[in-house]
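During the no-cost extension, the postdoctoral fellow (Dr. R.K.) reprocessed legacy sequence entries with the updated structure-token encoder. One reprocessed record is reproduced below for audit purposes.
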Amino acid sequence: MGEWLFFSNHTHVLTAIAREPDLTLREIAHAVGISERATHRIVGELEEHGCLRRIRVGARNHYELDVSAKLRHPLHGHCTVGQVIAALAGPEVRHQTVEPRSGLFDAAFAAASAGIVLSDETGRFAAVNAAFGEILGYTEDELVGRSFREFTHPDDVAADERALAELVSTGGDAVVREKRYVRRDGRVVWVKFRAAPMTDPATQRPMVVAHVIDISERKRRDRALAVAEELFRSAFDNAPIGMALVAPDGRWLKVNRALCELTAYPETELLVGSFRTITHPDDLEADLAQVAEVLDGKRRSYQIEKRCYHADGHVIWVLLSVSLVRDSCGEPLYFVTQIQDVTDRKRRADRLRTRDERLTV
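Re-encoded structure tokens follow.
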């Protein structure tokens, strides 16, 4: 945020909060010598322009100052909140205010379940919390003062260095990316981190603060899912019998090569229609009745012989095996359908039946 025009009462409110960050609005007003309404307005303006932040602690407010926030006084020119406090509050408050960490911050920093890292412009860790140490398998003391390069997977160092250079040089937007660390035990751990630029209030040097989350388990699940999907895709595409994924409303979602060869329809022509368009009218009602029972949960799957139309118009007999896949909430996603050509078997059976009938006569 850019520099903000402020006046004398704002400086007095800042000084009072720097001395006692847990004062109420009434106590701040009494310390400054202005009305409580004016104090409320000034605190709101300071908060709106990033000079301070209110944190609710129990029944009271706790105030944290951003000493690097830039101000512009109509008479005295440009400065920062830290410079105002340093000039007005005396050496004991000056030290307390410029110190970037407070007791509340220390407690939150240490207790955070996600890793938090504060590093300088070269990439050396200035501070880390216990959660980040657990991700890498080191104690906090073992990490502070060492470079991120020592723990980053070699293939990810270059990308990290580019991101660090951009954050330090431009102070631009936060960087969000996934990367790999190498733990103390040699195991690779995947993390997702969000790094943002900041300024050290004491030295005005650029720094970077990062929020780090271990996503190794998610990565393992993603890999396992990718392998399973690849196996299914390979089995589906290369199956010797017809295979299809069919929507609950009957539309073809995916068909394999064997089904196209069986029906002589090209894939694109099948995918714009539904199984109803190639099913013989005399067999459609029985097929739909089975579909309805599966969707209603009365059965998990069904198998039926029915007639279908070949692309050239003649009728073929198929054995249909159908099962339903549901989502985690039990809603139907699609049918997995296996389709085998049994035309020759049906013809042989018909010839045998005809012969038996003749012999009987």
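The domain at 239-348 is CATH 3.30.450.20 (Beta-Lactamase). The longest strand covers residues 188-199. The remaining legacy entries will be reprocessed before the final report is submitted.
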